[in-house]
Design goal:
40% helix; signal; Glyco_hydro/deAcase_b/a-brl; TIM Barrel; six-stranded parallel beta sheet; hydrolase activity, acting on carbon-nitrogen (but not peptide) bonds; Peptidoglycan/xylan/chitin deacetylase, PgdA/CDA1 family; alpha/beta; 8 helices; two-stranded parallel ribbon; Polysacch_Deacetylase
Length: 271
């Protein structure tokens, strides 16, 4: 090998080592595992504390619970939410009153007081920030994620989350899809809404995430009842058991931790 070629080879080797080092420093795309799975539970309902949290705790898995601040289950069972947070579950923000756009088709359930289409942007932002204050009073944390009520992103033509970018690590939407770190939109993270699907369906989604090395977010409401959108208790248990049995390959973490990891991957490497 002549001298110039040797220099080029050394430079190439150094470059590969630098990239590998930066990648390792960031913990790999999914904490050095095949994929990431986030288990999210919406609306602050009794079955969250009665069924979902105990099932997760029994296998030492952690999830994200998106709380509606005005939910009576928040007030009535506040010490239990606080204990769940201490065990590593994220208490996410699902707005103070869960306003949805009542002008859209199929929204007859939306009351005039909670019709997002009648909100101003400043009102929506103020209520969401008020809910953050409540959640911080419960868990003492200042970093968390947001979930769009009903998946509604806009008031009129205005994306209201644009004013909340500095208040949250990320926001979860309702559009289904598996995504690589580069594909994830931290202002509207994809999720699979579950309503009656089998354990086989849930586990197959995880296997697809493993194969494609992507992020998979589950969106649950009722777990074993308690909501019109529901997952069977046994199907939920089987999913959790699969995740636990394959934890060496699957990173299961709250949304805030996965979103922070993605943010870290997007930071320029320190030279």
């Amino acid at each position: 090998m002549n001298y110039p070629r040797r220099l080029l080879a050394l430079a190439a080797a150094y470059s590969l080592l630098f990239v590998a080092g930066a990648h390792a420093q960031a913990g790999g795309p999914w904490n050095n595992k095949q994929c990431a799975v986030v288990l999210t539970y919406d609306d602050a309902i009794d079955v969250d504390l009665d069924n979902a949290v105990p099932a997760l705790d029994s296998l030492q898995l952690r999830g994200t619970f998106y709380l509606i601040g005005s939910s009576p289950v928040v007030a009535r069972r506040l010490p239990e939410w606080r204990q769940a947070a201490k065990r590593g579950h994220e208490l996410g923000n699902h707005a103070l009153f869960h306003p949805c756009d009542g002008s859209l088709p199929g929204r007859s359930f939306v009351t005039p007081d909670n019709d997002l289409s009648k909100y101003t942007v400043s009102r929506a932002v103020s209520e969401i920030r008020t809910n953050n204050t409540l959640l911080t009073a419960i868990d003492g944390k200042t970093k968390r994620t947001f979930a769009y009520p009903c998946g509604d992103l806009k008031i009129g033509n205005v994306a209201f989350y644009d004013q909340l970018q500095n208040d949250f690590v990320a926001a979860r939407g309702v559009s289904a899809g598996l995504q690589t770190p580069a594909q994830v939109n931290l202002a509207n993270i994809n999720s699979y809404m579950i309503n009656g699907q089998s354990a086989e369906y849930l586990i197959d989604l995880v296997k697809k995430a493993q194969q494609s090395r992507t992020l998979l977010v589950f969106l649950f409401h009722g777990v074993g009842g308690g909501h019109g959108l529901n997952v069977d208790l046994q199907a939920h248990r089987q999913l959790l058991r699969y995740l636990k049995a394959h934890e060496k390959d699957i990173w299961v973490a709250p949304m805030v931790e996965v979103a922070e990891n993605i943010r870290g991957l997007r930071q320029p490497a320190v030279k």
